[in-house]
Amino acid sequence: MTRRQQAIAFFVALCVLLVGAAISLNIGWIVITASRVTPLVLGIVSFALIIAGLIVYTVFLVLEIKRNEEHDSFINAVTHELKTPIASIRLYLQTLQSRDVDEARRRQFYEVMLADAERLHQTVDQVLKAGAASQARRRTSRTPVDLAALARECVQLALVRHHLDPVAIAFVVHDEGSMMVSGDTEELRTVLANLLDNAVKYSGERIHVTVSVAAPSPGTVWVRVQDRGIGIPRKQLKRIFNRFYRVQARGLRHIKGTGLGLYIVKTIARAHGGRVFVQSEGEGRGATFTLELPRLVPEPAALRPQTALRPGA
Question: What are phi and psi of 77, to 5 degrees?
Fold first, then answer.
């Protein structure tokens, strides 16, 4: 048990003892003042307020302790995500500076440094996007976006970014017709990229991800990202979209992250009038994330307002 868990247990136990003491005093007050109505009522109300105050105080204290713990975990994760690639880039630069390296190894060093720089960029980008998402969202320009085409593009980008074989990520479109939504292309690309990166990262050694696009109803478009990886414990399904939260399960200690990706996904989905949800049968059984957005239905030509003709036209 960690110190924070001990602190939570202590304050919860203290609250229980104080509530018990207050109830005992309340019962004693009722017995003493049973024949006098006014002191009896005032005593009951006062003790009820005291008990409510103790419970509310303890709840907020426990939540604050948990929030501080999540914040510390986030700081540690971000520190690691920043220091590791910086140290790697520095080492390779020192090697290039102090030694004569043949052209083949020089190219290899450049590739590693570019990958580390991309990792740094992704970490900083996630932190900035999470900070913007936690504030009041500004209005962004909305344009028609072909969600199927965007998903296909993100799949191709994920294959290149993670150096995967084309068969590692399957792409399927289940319904014909328009898959248009109204939204910000870059924000929706961020959502799909985060879901794909998570699916690859938590797939384990054998990566087999399926991305499917469908229109289950005339007004809805779905993008589903399914993996066969380590899965998510059922008790944690409702918490994984919280800011700074990371799944607690066996075999995840070597997987690094900031705990911000799914929070950004949820925030962007809500800003577009949609939602994101997850399904998992438990550890070792994979996970399926579904992005649901309102479908942009073309206006029938017969219902479109006609432009008035000028006289003489």
Answer: -65, -45
Cα–Cα distance for residue pair 310/233, rounded to 1 Å = 67
Contact 55, 16 (CB under 8 A): no
Report yes or no: 239 and 232 within 8 Å, Cβ to Cβ. Answer: no
Nearest to residue 230, comparing CAs of 257, 258, 256, 251? 251
- Report the C-alpha gap between 199 and 288 in whole angstroms: 9
Residue pointed to by tokens 């478009």: 221
Quick one: DSSP state of residue 213?
E
Whole-number Å distance between alpha carbons of 197 and 169:
11
Cβ atoms within 10 Å, residue 266: 19
pLDDT digits (tens, 9 = 90+) for 58-85: 777 777 776 776 666 666 666 666 777 7
The pLDDT-based confidence of 308 (bands split at 50, 70, 90) is very low
CA distance 165 to 209: 12
Strands 169-173 and 209-217: parallel
Give just the sign of the alpha carbon dihedral 68, 71, 75, 81: positive
**Integer angstrom CA distances of residue 198 from 53, 158, 169, 192, 229:** 42, 11, 13, 10, 10
DSSP secondary structure, 110-147, as one string = HHHHHHHHHHHHHHHHHHHHHHHHHSPPPP---EEEEH
